[in-house]
Amino acid sequence: MNLKPILNVILDQYRLPLNDIHGVVHWARVLENGLRLCDETGADVDVVSLFAVLHDSQRENEGYDPDHGPRAAEFAKEIRGEFFQLNDSQFWRLYYACEGHTHERTHEDVTIQTCWDADRLDLGRIGIVPHPARLCTDAAKRKETIDWAYGRGAMEFVPERVREEWGIDVGKSW
Ligand SMILES: [Fe+2]
After folding, report:
1. Mean pLDDT over residues 55-83, rounded?
2. Residue 135 C-alpha to ligand 1 middle, in angstroms?
3. How remote is the CA of residue 166 from the centroid of ligand 1, in Å?
4. Which residues, by Cβ under 5 Å, contact ligand 1, an ion?
5. If you measure from the C-alpha of residue 107 to the centroid of ligand 1, how many angstroms do you get, rounded to a whole number?
6. If you measure from the C-alpha of residue 55 to the centroid of ligand 1, how many angstroms do you get, rounded to a whole number?
7. Which of 120, 89, 82 is nearest to 103 (CA)?
8. Which phi and psi angles does 80 have, rounded to 5°?
9. For residue 96, what are the contacts with CB-CB under 8 A and spacing of at least 6?
10. Rounded average pLDDT over 72-89
11. CA quadruple 91, 66, 121, 38: dihedral, nearest 10
């Protein structure tokens, strides 16, 4: 899925710094965490990819903002059709994954599980090692996965796709 046109419309209204803890570099790491998990979980790659760039896109601050998930779900509904296409079964998963990503622990649907794990695996950026009990899928709970993702978050790794595929310059670091 080409995320560039979707990112353009998301960034047109994004209120926070691109390179802060909930910005595009986080979205790119969530995407790459998710793609890695999809290989094993069989989750829907398009839903996981859209979740990565949408789930924090409606934040109003970098701290306590309990309604940013529901706002992201509604934003996804607004731009569906014009900026991306999903069938109803896929869209339901994307909507719910965005809506519940901060306050729900797990879900019976593996695509929603994979979305939430992809996000939680990036807690290294705020110095937190993801705990297996807070993850949903076996693929994410594996020590090798946690170590890999934690390392990338902790070192503020900027995936190449941010500049090369998305054309976004976030500077060296923050
Ligand atoms: Fe996030």
Report:
1. 97
2. 14
3. 18
4. 56, 119
5. 17
6. 6
7. 120
8. -60, 140
9. 73, 107, 109, 112
10. 97
11. -10
Provide the pLDDT for residue 172: 59
Query: With contact defined as beta carbons under 8 Å apart, do 50 and 2 qualify?
Result: no
Neighbours of 172 (CB within 10 A): 8
Distance from the CA of 85 to the center of ligand 1, in angstroms? 22
Distance CA 35, CA 104 (A): 22
Structure tokens at 9: 């419309």
Quote the ligand 1 centre to 19 CA distance (angstroms): 13
Q: Distance of CA 157 to CAs 84, 105, 127, 154, Å? A: 28, 26, 14, 8
Token pair 């500049």: residue: 163
pTM beyond 0.90, yes or no: yes
Q: Which residues contact 30 (CB under 8 A, 6 or more apart)?
A: 51, 52, 55, 118, 119, 121, 122
> Looking at the predicted structure, is the pLDDT value of residue 5 above 50?
yes
d(CA 89, ligand 1 centre) in Å: 23
For residue 105, pLDDT over 80 is answered with yes
Say if CB 26 and CB 75 are below 8 A apart.
no
